[in-house]
Amino acid sequence: MNILHGHIDSLTSSGSLTLVHVNVRQTRLSAIVIDRPDTAPYLKLGNSVTVLFKETEVVVGRGTEHFVSLQNKLPGSVESIAKGELLSRLVLATAVGKVVSVITTNALRQLALEPGSAITAMIKTNEMMLSE
Amino acid sequence: MIELAFHKTLHSADGTMPLRVDLRIKQGSFACLYGKSGAGKTSFARIVAGLLAAEAGRIRVNGATWYDSEAGIELRPQQRSVGFVFQDYALFPNMTVEENLSFALRRGQDAGIVRDLIELIELGGLRDRRPAMLSGGQRQRVALARALVQTPALLLLDEPLAALDAAMRARLQQYILRVHREYRLSTILISHDVSDILKMADTLLHLEHGGIVWQGPPAKYFGRSSLSGKFQFSGELIAIEAQDVVFILSILIGGNVVKVVADESEVKALRIGDRLLVASKAFNPIIRKIDVNPDDERIPRS
Question: In chain A, which segments carry CATH 2.40.50.100?
């Protein structure tokens, strides 16, 4: 699990959903939760929260320009690679700190990634979990 | 009902700290007193047992008053219906297991209870041994049996599992739960081990700086309510398998074994038998209607 700590920057509710922006080291991450500020007291502007997301949900793109729907885009570089037969584990150095991504070894090959490669780590808004 | 309301100023190397509690625990419940070391847990237990005097307050257990500073009542430890097990419980070294238990009988008490406890806690094969011939876990079982000889209303356990290895710990947990149910005890366990608490307790009392800051169901306290994920279950870890660069955990949840992929950073802290919270976002699961005719049931594997 990737674990980041930040502060709530903005809250937008509609029905029982709330879109939450969390500021982690000056980078704005977005998460969507089935909670509202009136039902979940931790949803408060300025509150410190932990953002959690699974390694297997971290998309890796080469370079920095990606015209995709993913809202959490973290530019950085590949720090290390553990290559398995089917899956590989990448440690990525980004503006929010180290992020681990598990992708297929085929994808690793196609992107020709190696330590030092410039990448963008991307995570969908609905894959971001929050904890107090 | 167990009513505990008392205060006392505790002195430690870091200065003084007021221990101030006012709580009620239902008869028959298994409560765990949880908190960092230095929070006042052991002093709490010693005051309840009568081994340490409170400055003021009231202790009533199932209608019997053990302590009431206003009424001038203060029962001695042996007058309180309490069994006490410490982390390192001192058994009499010159007595056998059975003699240690029999020695705890009240004058005129039927010795049948000793036989019952030997059976319930499975000490039959050890009855003639002296404490020096026993393992740590076996000694704790004898200590547990001895604390129950006088069939107390309240059982106080001060970190009785702390010095034991995982397998021994799991067994002693079973014995404690067994006697708790068999003798319809009210039990207060002092522990800071989350797996002990989730496995055994129905009530958690979080003690911090001498005060109870939270009381309620343990599962609620440990994470369930603090994670935004709506797809949450707790289960027991039964297998860890390394696969490629990830790990596959088998977790027993309500009679079903589910598999969850985990990263090495998570697996490091895990052991077989651990209680785990499994959480996912409500956005992830796919659903599929199950046909009522079992022959038509088709659920894709994985």
Answer: 2-52+127-131, 54-124
pLDDT tens-digit profile of B82-112? 998 887 767 899 999 999 999 989 888 888 8
Is residue A120 within 8 A of residue A68, CB to CB? The reply is no
Residue B297: per-residue pLDDT: 47
Average pLDDT, chain B: 86
Q: How far is CA A75 from the centre of its chain?
A: 11
Q: Which amino acid is present at B96?
A: T
CATH number of A2-52+127-131: 2.40.50.100
Strands B30-34 and B203-208: parallel
DSSP B32-97: EEE--TTSSHHHHHHHHHTSS--SEEEEEETTEEEEETTTTEE--GGGS-EEEE-TT----TTS-H
B244 in contact with A, Cβ within 8 Å: yes
From the list B228, B264, B284, which residue is nearest A33 (CB)? B228
The answer to whether the CB of B248 falls within 8 A of the CB of B241 is: yes
Does B246 touch chain A if contact means CB atoms closer than 8 Å? yes
Q: Which fold has domain A54-124?
A: OB fold (Dihydrolipoamide Acetyltransferase, E2P) (2.40.50)
Q: Are A121 and A66 in contact (CB under 8 A)?
A: no
User: Which pTM does this prediction carry?
Assistant: 0.57
CB atoms near residue A75 (< 10 Å): 18
What order of strands is seen across the sheet that includes strand A2-14? A27-33, A17-24, A2-14, A48-53, A129-131
Q: How far is A106 from chain B (nearest CA, A)?
A: 14
Q: Which of B120, B141, B133, B127 is nearest to B96 (CA)?
A: B127
